[in-house]
Amino acid sequence: MIRFPEGFLWGAATSAYQIEGAASADGRRPSVWDVFAHTPGKTFHGQTGDIACDHYRRWEQDLDLMAELGLKAYRFSIAWTRTTHEDGRPNQRGLDFYRRLAEGLRDRGIVPFATLYHFDLPQSVEDKGGWLNRDTAYRLAEHAQVVTGALKDTVDHWMTINEAYVESFLGYATGELSPGHQDTGEALAAAHHLLLGHGLSAQTIREGNAGKVGLATSLSPVHPMTQAPADVAAARLVDGVNNRLFLDAIFKGTYPTDVQERYADLRPGFTVVQDRDMEVISTPLDFFGLNFYYGRTVTGTDGDLPSGWAETPLSTPVERDLGARDVVRTDQETTVMGWPITPNVFTEILCRFKTDFADIPVYITENGVSLHDQVSPEGVVHDPERIDFLTLHLNAIHNAIAEGVQVKGYLTWSLMDNFEWAQGYGPRFGLTYVDFGTQRRIPKTSFHWYRDVIARNGLNPPLARPHEPDQEEAKQHG
Ligand code: FCB
């Protein structure tokens, strides 16, 4: 039995646009995701979050589900499009929804972890330039002030923004996510403005004594395919863009020199950085939210790969511009989204965070696996692969705790199946199956397993099935 420290916060996570639906209820305004999802060709089968899990109406039932699971913490996000009107005035009806939710959590003994911004920029702000416009950072801080002012008596763990890397690089460079631009110079400017918005919001939360401040950042350890200098250099640069660009800014108040040099000619790029911005961005935090899905392996060479290696769908034009390609071993197990399953590097990134960036409390604010779960004729959803995935990752966290990393909680992605951005309702990440036709929730086998983990505050290995590659299965589904 692997035991976790006393008081470890076991949780689950979601985000507003991915679960709420009720797209125009109570004065909600459109976000960039409403517009993007309704643009033909942008999402899988044109799917949108108009209804999603209908959580805005079914929140009470969902709270009961969380209580049944025995959650100690729940991470949700607060839609900016619900909390304020276009002119910045508070929208009381929207704020009331989150108050009911947070109070409902507290009544059930669950600690609310609120993210102030999870990809869903109001379209009216996008129309003024979105994250390419410096002013958006100040508008985000206004939303942060309205929300934390209204809810600070019931929420005391705040995350300013979610995954600045994903939003800036997948939104502005690869174009996979909203707003779908393809310009690395823009991605850098968007990243800087997002980070500035984070810093300004963190200051607002501090000044208003609203509680503990953090943010959620996705990190992917990057390793070279071989020790050849070209591979090592490529891995270093990809690590710079994916990880250090954000961690150096937040914890050291600077951008990494190698990334700055590499992108020196891009516009607007780093030219948007103004005096004192880095001081704001590096406002001290109470905790770090780490989202972990996979580690990356890259090569810096062109041409054919050595036998036993294959290029992954994670390779993007941005990496290729850096002279890098993402690769995996051909026997590497991957999820239905093609993400490599790499629990081995999870401990490493946690230890590196403590050693190189900050020895502060860490919450794993997302970690989970996409599958193509199905309901059996008996009405059961059996997902042993998810149990294995979570077991391996929890083991990795346990090892990091043994190394002295202050991991205080684990909020798995996700409480329930939901709208997976450009991939729509294809990949399922939930512990709970959602039948999107009827909105019926069916706890999966992993839900029952997780409930036991929480109740015991520990893990009982071994795995649910032998851990072996199932590339073929992944390819068929992918
Ligand atoms: C992360 C996002 C989250 C979810 C997971 C699978 O990048 O923060 O909303 O979509 O991926």
Structure, described:
There is one protein chain. This protein is globular. The two termini are 35 Å apart. It is α/β, with parallel strands linked by helices. Helices cover 40% and strands 15% of the residues. 54% of the residues are buried. β12 (362-366), α15 and β13 form a beta-alpha-beta unit. It has one domain (2-475): Glycosidases (TIM Barrel, Alpha-Beta Barrel). It has helices spanning 16-19, 32-37, 55-69, 80-83, 92-107, 123-126, 135-151, 164-172, 184-207, 229-252, 257-262, 277-281, 317-321, 344-357, 384-402, 445-456, 471-477; strands at 2-3, 9-13, 73-77, 111-117, 157-162, 212-218, 222-224, 288-291, 296-299, 309-311, 325-329, 362-366, 407-413, 432-435, 440-443, 458-459. It has an 8-stranded parallel beta barrel with strand order 2-3-4-5-6-8-12-13, surrounded by 6 helices. Strands 7-9-11-10 form a 4-stranded mixed sheet, with helices on one face. Strands 1-16 form a two-stranded antiparallel ribbon. Mean pLDDT is 96; it is low at 466-478. It has 17 helices and 16 strands. Beta-D-fucopyranose binds next to loops.
